[in-house]
Design a protein that fits this description.
single chain, alpha/beta, Zincin-like, three-stranded mixed β-sheet
């Protein structure tokens, strides 16, 4: 269904109730709760009849959603100015939307991760030559693939502080010495990053 020029999904939940209720859920969908025997034709008619009310609810959802969105760069919330393309100038971030700016920061995170990697690489002698890559990951901040000799860092780390990035880098470098998460592994991590427990808890790593 089209609301305020947005295509909004309609989710129907039929229950043992007497009345029909509409709301916009946390995902921005139209959530319809109705009696079990309610036909889809009836639901569609009621949706069409209540477009203005639905648009008010959806506008409220969009306003709340926009307030939740932030441009976070290296652990700091950044002010941004709306502009047709994304760019950073004199410490100010320009872009068409928060999502587009965050996508840009993540896409261009590799060079900064490479700089942080260089700060610690000499602390790990005798490790093999490896390639550093970036990728958006849902459940991991970093991966050390021993077979391909590749360390992959989660692009979302660009939104976190330097010490969080550094911890993940040291974590993955330490895996060249210890492939598991044994006591020896954590001793290695702690040797290079004594505050690892604090950052690990923050990242829930």
């Amino acid at each position: 269904m089209l609301l305020l020029n947005h295509e909004v999904e309609v989710i129907i939940d039929k229950k043992r109730i007497k009345n029909i209720y509409f709301r916009i859920n946390d995902e921005g969908n139209i959530y319809v709760t109705c009696p079990i025997l309610t036909s889809n034709l009836t639901i569609n008619r009621l949706l069409s009849k209540n477009v203005k009310s639905l648009e008010r609810m959806y506008k409220s959802y969009l306003n709340k959603s926009n307030k939740k969105q932030k441009v976070m760069y290296l652990g700091k919330e950044m002010d941004y100015i709306e502009y047709k393309k994304v760019m950073i100038n004199d410490g100010i971030i320009y872009g068409p939307s928060v999502d587009k700016i965050n996508e840009y920061l993540e896409k261009h995170s590799l060079s900064l991760f490479e700089e942080r990697m260089q700060l610690y690489i000499n602390e790990f002698p005798n490790i093999p030559k490896f390639r550093l890559r970036i990728r958006k990951m849902k459940t991991r901040w970093g991966v050390n693939n021993f077979k391909s000799k590749t360390i992959t860092l989660n692009t979302e780390l660009i939104h976190y502080r330097y010490d969080c990035i550094d911890y993940v880098i040291i974590h993955e470098l330490s895996h060249f010495y210890h492939k598991d998460h044994s006591r020896n592994f954590w001793n290695e991590v702690g040797k290079h990053f004594p505050r690892y427990k604090e950052i690990r808890k923050e990242l829930r790593y």
